[in-house]
């Protein structure tokens, strides 16, 4: 008898899936058996490369241009995924903006941009997904280790936005639990990506903040997302998971 993959015949949408944690997550979910749509804003070539790699795994892939800062595009990507694949089982809220700087340098426009992407976009995508998910659906959000420990100045706005996602996650778990839908949040620590490379100018200081003494990989975050997306995590909801090398220890 042939055993099915954990996410066989499921459909996932990964926002911000053209690179870094998002791309690693899209590919991991595809390896687990899911068809995967991803969103991107600027790098169409990178997004299409992820789709090709998803398809090389025998799954269907789809790249959607959608800016999480736009109040219509974030939820619209959910509908476009359902239109293309016929259903939605897993939403991974990965799209996000990063902005660090002294408190007195942050403008109202900075606040609006970050909160529109990191909070409003995630809320609206989750709201749209909740209307489409069936029993066993999953909403998984990528947070940040800075929600649990802010190691120095300059992170006020970023930590504010990411911390709001913890409240959103817990509330979604309560809202959707009676439908068999779970909501969880994953907090990555310093992760080796093109935006924050492990050999970058500030990497040694970041690694020193962790108990493991190193950067994590995007695949290590993706493995936690894949677990939460699967049937084995059906009784896990409203929870926070740190994949941070002990950054918060």
TrEMBL record:
Superkingdom to which the source organism belongs: Bacteria
This protein's record includes keyword Cell membrane: no
Pfam families: adh_short_C2
UniProt xrefs under InterPro entries: KR_dom, NAD(P)-bd_dom_sf, SDR_fam
Cell membrane is among the record's keywords: no
Keywords on record: Oxidoreductase
Sequence ranges assigned to domain Ketoreductase in this UniProt record: 10-194
GO molecular function, one term: oxidoreductase activity
Family per similarity comment: Belongs to the short-chain dehydrogenases/reductases (SDR) family.
Entry protein name: 3-oxoacyl-ACP reductase
Species this protein is from: Streptomyces poonensis
